[in-house]
């Protein structure tokens, strides 16, 4: 991506206002295949570190909480009962019920964790809605804040390869740790 293309994105965002900066992370909570990292970096570079981070954080927290509430309402449906029978889901639900909110907090701090899956599984657990909202506030602030800080000035990525390498190393480390934690909590040999 060239610097002109990046500037085009910023101009597009600026003309549409803060709504797009909020909506993209919001929609990512429903469609986890969308790149939250890109949305946060674009937000931070379009609106500044504080406003860009705040928009992305609010979008992802509100979107994740709505996903949680929707699936909490659907707990007794046929599809959700089938989902609850999966070994990985049962394992995570029991772990959450036994250990509390710390595993959810840790999982949601990593940008590569499938947060939609965590939201759904948390909705099946016995965690209270207001407690889950608190966990979302804190964990997403850590995740969005880290991404925003690392991608704060995207133009220096083109001129300063050291910063680009540092960011890539941090993301690889975060990805590796997140995958290990995700594998521990979500996967089992039975599936």
UniProtKB/TrEMBL annotation:
Q: Which InterPro entries match?
A: TMEM64 (IPR015414), VTT_dom (IPR032816)
User: According to its UniProt record, where is this protein located?
Assistant: Cell membrane
Q: What Pfam families does the record point to?
A: VTT_dom
The UniProt keyword set, sorted, is:
Cell membrane, Membrane, Transmembrane, Transmembrane helix
Residues that span the membrane, as ranges: 12-41, 47-71, 101-124, 130-150, 162-178
Question: Any idea where the VTT domain is?
Answer: 35-149
How would you describe this protein's topology in the membrane?
Answer: Multi-pass membrane protein
Read off the PANTHER family from this record: GOLGI APPARATUS MEMBRANE PROTEIN TVP38-RELATED, UNDECAPRENYL PHOSPHATE TRANSPORTER SAOUHSC_00901-RELATED
Q: Which family does it belong to?
A: Belongs to the TVP38/TMEM64 family.
The molecule here is called TVP38/TMEM64 family membrane protein
